[in-house]
Amino acid sequence: MLQKIYDWIDERIDITPIWRDIADHEVPEHVNPAHHFSAFVYCFGGLTFFVVVIQILSGMFLTMYYVPDIENAWKSVYYLQTEVAHGQIVRGMHHWGASVVVVMLLLHTLRVFFQGSYKKPRELNWMVGVLLFFVMLGLGFTGYLLPWDNKAYFATQVGLEIAEQVPFIGDQLKTLLAGDSEIVGAQTLTRFFAIHVFFLPGALFALMAVHFILIRRQGISGPL
Amino acid sequence: MHKGKGMKFVGDSRVTAERTSQIPKDYSEYPGRTEAFWPNFLLKEWLAGSVFLVGFLCLTLAHPSPLEGIADPTNAAYIPLPDWYFLFLYELLKYEFASGPYVIMGILVLPGLAFGALLLAPFLDNGPGRRPHQRPIAVIMMLLGLISVSWLTYASAAHVDWETRAEENKPIPPSSVEIDTEHEGYAFYEENCMSCHGGELEGGGAAPGLIGIDYSAEEIADIARNGINTMPADQFTGSDEDLEKLVDFIITTNEQAE
Amino acid sequence: MSEEKQQVSRRQFLNYTLTGVGGFMAAGLLISPIRMAIDPVLKPSSAGEYANVGLAVEDITTEPQRVDWKIDQVDGWYESKVSKSAWVFKDDNDEIMALSPTCTHLGCVVSWEGNDDHPNQFYCPCHDGRYYKDGTNIEGTPPTRPLDLYDHKVENGMLYLGKANVRGEA
């Protein structure tokens, strides 16, 4: 039955080459930890992706309870953490995932750097990767405010003061981020929520797609 | 066009073997035991992923994600601290050459140089050799960068007393207390305690809130006289009868809040 | 098709047109959202507005007195009342000074001659922080900088205070 459905679809849109491209490529020996244990360093990229998946899933579920409003944000986080079954775990996954993803990203970057894997012809993919790093730090910065606790509020205050000190455009930059020229408040929270949940993930997905397509297209770098 | 298996590619890429421009070396130069991505290699990856996931879930179970009290913009005593991966930038701004009149150095020039160099690394380090000893400058720069970032992060985090911080900033469940200004102890509260502990016992400044405190009447009386932690002694200097009324006010307000 | 050499080929023309129409669609889609996103930058700042603190100028003496007032803070759709207070007095040059009572050490509230042992000083009860009358912190006490100074102006004989400004280290 499944075979018939597959054949029906394949006959019309020819999907076989698409998945065979991914499934059938040969993985070389030097990246396979089964042959050389030191090849575990090649896992960091995959693990980064895995944590990103954890972040996306846990984040999607967190928004079922979370409200980006200064009167209710903290209460909703407190509620989901204390009253909702497994809420503690889901928020924990998102909170710790945010740290773990930075660690994995750093390890992956260092692997690529010290192996010189960014050399020709992979320059573009390295730049996409560094941009991914920036997007991830942006997600960390905007996500930190959302629980609206003291830690979040004052760290964001400091971050915005730093933005304000940029020459010429500092004031505008701060206002653009905070939504108000003086107050870190209701409009800041909604802005950071929008950036954290829609704008940056959009950029993240686009860059990840380019990153993966380039890896498939260029193959993994050879052994040293 | 030729599809699926049977097509010749370079290495494990999708660049066809027939085209020869700008392509990486074929792995046949490094003879070895290759294996199919699906399902052989992916199974190994997922096994590694499972081990990782178990470790990760243990972390989330062992350490519930922290939540501090609701943001209070009037709390001027709070010492802000960013998330750990921004600590190095935060610490950088404390140095004299990166703050005050030189703040541009700290917020734009140094981070700009570091991240710009990272972004453009393939063009700065464009020699053919890939091994670290063939490109000593790039490797040394990266090591220096890593050391300084680690040092800055350490310097920033080392003097923080994390436990006290967590203790002082415990989340207080939302409660709405009504202050009985008719209470005979209220006048003493207003006179002696309110400037720090707030009109609704909510705390503020350097002083904690007084709702949900875990002290007996005697202990509260003692604290009012002799202080505790950062609270200095002799905040209350009235008579013992007045002190009793004050303590009764704090306790009844607490009972009513529960 | 004529045999004449064409300046712009049909294909080029279509490409230009496509770019133009694409640009039109992108602009049409994005003008309003972008204007909406940058609105706070273009709005005049409400900060620095002065509030009547309910104190007549003729009542200001050289002895600091505490004034309390409330301002309406409007943060988008969220309005709140924020209490403010200041110590107001005339200095030796007959200039009005309005000092913020927030201790620059840990944010407790200072009071004028709050301790009988230290006359003519502002005193913070939390950690014995002290300030001279002009708000300068006294060396050797916990505060690291002077008390903040409010902007002020006088209208119709009443005192109006604006925002509190941080002053440099003593």
Automatic annotation (TrEMBL), chain A:
GO terms for biological process: respiratory electron transport chain. The keyword Transport applies. InterPro entries: Cyt_b/b6_N (IPR005797), Cytb/b6-like_sf (IPR027387), Di-haem_cyt_TM (IPR016174). It is found in: Cell membrane. Its main location: membrane. The chain crosses the membrane at residues 39-67, 96-114, 126-146, 193-215. One of its GO terms (cellular component) is plasma membrane. The keyword Electron transport applies. Keywords: Cell membrane, Electron transport, Heme, Iron, Membrane, Metal-binding, Transmembrane, Transmembrane helix, Transport. It holds the Pfam family Cytochrome_B. Component of the menaquinol:cytochrome c reductase complex. The main subunits of the menaquinol:cytochrome c complex are a Rieske-type iron-sulfur protein (QcrA), a cytochrome b (QcrB) and a cytochrome c (QcrC). This is Menaquinol:cytochrome c reductase cytochrome b subunit. It comes from Oceanobacillus limi. The lineage of its organism: Bacteria, Bacillati, Bacillota, Bacilli, Bacillales.
TrEMBL record, chain B:
It is a multi-pass membrane protein. GO terms for cellular component: membrane. Keywords: Electron transport, Heme, Iron, Membrane, Metal-binding, Transmembrane, Transmembrane helix, Transport. Residues 27-154 form the Cytochrome b/b6 C-terminal region profile domain. It comes from the Bacteria. Residues 180-254 form the Cytochrome c domain. Its main location: membrane. The chain crosses the membrane at residues 46-63, 102-124, 136-154. It holds the Pfam family Cytochrome_CBB3. GO terms for molecular function: electron transfer activity; heme binding; metal ion binding; oxidoreductase activity. InterPro entries: Cyt_b/b6_C, Cyt_b/b6_C_sf, Cyt_c-like_dom, Cyt_c-like_dom_sf, Cytb/b6-like_sf, Cytochrome_c550/c551-like. It is found in: Membrane. PANTHER family: CYTOCHROME C-553-LIKE, MENAQUINOL-CYTOCHROME C REDUCTASE CYTOCHROME B_C SUBUNIT. This is Menaquinol-cytochrome c reductase cytochrome b/c subunit. It comes from Oceanobacillus limi.
TrEMBL record, chain C:
Belongs to the Rieske iron-sulfur protein family. InterPro entries: Rieske_2Fe-2S, Rieske_2Fe-2S_sf, Rieske_Fe-S_prot, TAT_signal. PANTHER family: CYTOCHROME B-C1 COMPLEX SUBUNIT RIESKE, MITOCHONDRIAL (PTHR10134). This is Menaquinol:cytochrome c reductase iron-sulfur subunit. CDD domains: Rieske (cd03467). The chain crosses the membrane at residues 12-31. One of its GO terms (molecular function) is 2 iron, 2 sulfur cluster binding. Gene3D superfamilies: Rieske [2Fe-2S] iron-sulphur domain. It comes from Oceanobacillus limi. Component of the menaquinol:cytochrome c reductase complex. The Rieske protein is a high potential 2Fe-2S protein. The main subunits of the menaquinol:cytochrome c complex are a Rieske-type iron-sulfur protein (QcrA), a cytochrome b (QcrB) and a cytochrome c (QcrC). The keyword Transmembrane applies. Keywords: 2Fe-2S, Disulfide bond, Electron transport, Iron, Iron-sulfur, Membrane, Metal-binding, Oxidoreductase, Transmembrane, Transmembrane helix, Transport. Residues 88-161 form the Rieske domain.
